[in-house]
Amino acid sequence: MKAVAFSEQGEVNVLQYQDVPKPTLEHDEVLVKVKVCAVNYLDIHARRDRPEIKKKLEVTGTPHILGSDIAGEIAAITEDHPQLNVGDRVLLAPCIPCGVCSDCINGYENLCDTQQLLGFQTDGGYAEFVKAPVKNAIQIADELPFVEAAALPIAYLTAWHMLITRAQLQAGEDILILGAGGSVGSAGLQIAKLVGARIFATASTDEKLARAKHYGADVTINYSEVDFSEVILEETNGRGVDVVLEHVGTATWNKSISSLAKNGRLVSCGVTTGNIGEINIRKMYQKQLTIMGSALGTATELRTLVRLAEQRRLIPIIDRTLPLQNAAEAHQLLESRKNFGKVCLIP
Ligand SMILES: [Zn+2]
After folding, report:
1. How confident is the model at residue 170 (pLDDT cuts 50, 70, 90)?
2. 16-19 and 29-38: which strand pairing?
3. Per CATH, which fold does 157-293 belong to?
């Protein structure tokens, strides 16, 4: 089969469109003919230098295939599974948890220490076919386009877990969404709109801010021109926002905390500019702030997102689709932050 894969980590030129063996199924696995695979920033980290990928390349001696956001049709299935048949339209849940540790048993499979991610510790969807455990296959309605289904797993699941499960964003609350043009930011924007929150969104260009407004942002802030925390305090009469969706890290940490109202919650899922941030502990307890982490999400949450997308109450934002051969171009788009919403590859 055709796939985009790489044998050593590096810049985009390591991505090679090539022939690789079609996956062979083992116990309780499903083979999916990939219709769409969405690209994530994690793919870029994996391609560049993530140690898990380096180890996989060394151990297997075969090229690595990226791609965690996969929608397609079942091409083969190992055993008799009454609910799934060849030809069914499915989305693949990206996490492969162990299923037996205390976190998995308690319903926190996103915290499983030995979980694998499709396209990361396993070969993924930058290919004509991908295999996954049967239980990762989620059936999707005919009305849900493959491209929208493929947009959901990493970005929308991450944003949903952050805002709904962790921060418990409520209707009428104020939320600040950083980097509203990126995958998690734009997903968070739509989810916050669905909840009924008032949305403050930052982005680096006026074009992205206009799109953020189109998708429901109430107040937009160009962070390359002004200090967003000052604008937040001005716009909220000095109160601040109830929730901050953080995924930037060191560069925005202090301003994000300064933007919080009393009883405010900061929820973080990423550190694209660095891991380390300081906090004024006195201000934190006097304002009763909550700082919370958030790690991807669960298959149950992903099923909720699929239902919302099938009901057309949540229509994922697709920046563009490209042929699989153009995976390098897709990576460059994300690296230069030129996209608004998901970039998707079509084998
Ligand atoms: Zn586990």
Report:
1. very high
2. unpaired
3. Rossmann fold (3.40.50)
Give tens-digit pLDDT for 95-106. Answer: 999 999 999 999
Residues with CB under 5 A from ligand 1 (ion): 97-98, 101, 104, 112
Q: What is the DSSP annotation of 152-198?
A: IIIIIHHHHIIIIIIS---TT-EEEESSTTSHHHHHHHHHHHHHT-E
DSSP state of 22: P
In percent, the amount of the chain with pLDDT more than 70 equals: 100
Cα of 117 to ligand 1 centre, how many Å?
13
Task: Answer yes or no: are the C-beta atoms of 37 and 74 closer than 8 Å.
Answer: no
Helices 51-60 and 41-48 cross at an angle (nearest 10°) of 60
Assigned CATH topology for domain 2-139+317-346: Quinone Oxidoreductase; Chain A, domain 1 (3.90.180)
pLDDT average, residue stretch 299-304: 96
Between the CA of 210 and the centroid of ligand 1 the distance, in Å, is 42
pLDDT tens-digit profile of 235-272? Answer: 999 999 999 999 999 999 999 999 999 999 999 999 98
Residues of the chain with CATH 3.90.180.10: 2-139+317-346
